[in-house]
Amino acid sequence: MSLPLVVALDGPSGSGKSSTARGVAARLGLAYLDTGAMYRAVTWALLQRGVDTDDAAAVAAAVADVTIESGTDPAEPTIVADGVDVAVEIRSDEVVRHVSPVSTVPQVRTHLVDLQRQVIAAATPGIVVEGRDIGTVVATDAAVKVYLVADPEARASRRAAEEGGSDTAATAASLLRRDRIDSTRATSPLAKADDAVEIDTTFLTLDEVIGQIVALAEEARS
Ligand SMILES: Nc1ncnc2c1ncn2[C@@H]1O[C@H](COP(=O)(O)OP(=O)(O)OP(=O)(O)O)[C@@H](O)[C@H]1O
Ligand SMILES: Nc1ccn([C@H]2C[C@H](O)[C@@H](COP(=O)(O)O)O2)c(=O)n1
Q: In whole angstroms, what is the distance from residue 143 CA to residue 39 CA?
């Protein structure tokens, strides 16, 4: 019997991780885990409790009671926090503003990395996992590791278009703020694993990026 295939997909905000990961998982018949949605869901739950997200000690004390469940069907991924479906709420501006500081707290990371490893261990025939630290921390033995990048302008204009033509300059500022916090935090910063393949998606279509990663996965499986 072959080992479950794990595809680790990391990269900065808006580089195309979610859309690419879902496409790869659908093409290969694998599960899909959006770890960013888990950090967003914890942030939503802490805000609901009135926790000051800039107070690391308060965040650390509150996070142990937060329950997160992730549905891993790439056609219909789900995210539930404290029993509430928060798929819409976690995309709010308020959650976006608070998620990066929350993600710097070591107890938050330990709590979620444990959950992520449980989901990965249960996934047959395999799973595509996307985030910031999948290749470097969560699944260091993944058979395929990809690090997606794209020019900040491309990332901002794609995200602004997705949001129905919102202000591209404001979107760019928000993406760059998250990049800075995510890549400079002390614990598990956003980083390319030494053995990851870097793909610059700036001038590639989504289908082209998916095709490149499917080819890497098929090579790893053969
Ligand atoms: N190669 C591509 N070409 C054009 N558009 C793309 C490409 N990849 C992704 N997109 C589009 O860019 C936008 C951002 O992609 P996506 O949400 O997948 O990025 P992300 O890295 O998961 O972002 P975040 O880290 O903020 O969750 C989406 O509208 C998506 O459809
Ligand atoms: N493995 C991960 C995934 C996400 N985060 C943090 C940092 C991001 O700004 C935030 C939201 O992620 P997104 O939904 O935009 O992919 O969550 C992290 O620290 N580690």
A: 24
